[in-house]
Amino acid sequence: GFLMQTSEMLQKICVRNLVRKYCRGLTAERKVQLQQKVVTSAVFSGKKEGYLESLSQPFLETRLKENDLNPKVLQLIRGENIKYVTPVIKYDRNGFKARERLLVLTQSSAYVVEMAKIKQKIEYSTLKGISTSNLSDGIVVIHVPEDNKQKGDVILQCEHIFETVTKLCILANKQSVVKVVKGSLRFRVGSGKEGTMVFTVGPEPQVFKDKTGQLTVV
After folding, report:
1. How far apart are alpha carbons 138 and 108 in whole angstroms?
2. Boundaries of domain holding 140
3. CB 82 within 8 A of CB 76
4. Of 58, 74, 88, 164, which sits 20 to 30 A from 111 (CA to CA)?
């Protein structure tokens, strides 16, 4: 019995040392990767299609560098530490016209940027929710409060959905507000009005306004 106990204790010590050695050998970059992937798992594992395939793809620190941004935009967000920039497609809240934009995440806010203009700023402290569907699309809706500062919720399509949403909820420290929805979701258009988005499965991916005026994501 005594030998068994000793053997178990030695095994535990050995495993602990191996884990410690592994952790010590990790680069700072690899550590950040693992911490981010843990959040991705908590938010998406078993809930969104494409999650398992995303596991093997390392997250990039950013998709575009700071100097890829227009100098005017850099001047407008001066003093805020830029953490992540990615190209996105933004859908208008009313006619659902698709527009090429950049999503810029700083340490305190998310910005939707068009060339040299900031189209919308969302301070993380005011961010109400982040919604995605359970299907393999790259749509994310950033829900904002109903106030005069905001035009309404932001509808974006991101190529690297798991990476972008993970970065956003870590920077905003709002992991708990991410929802993975089935079927449909409601979003705020502004001035008290609401819109509906429908998620469905089809032979080819597309996003369009259907006859009833809903945004349909296939």
Report:
1. 24
2. 48-192
3. no
4. 58
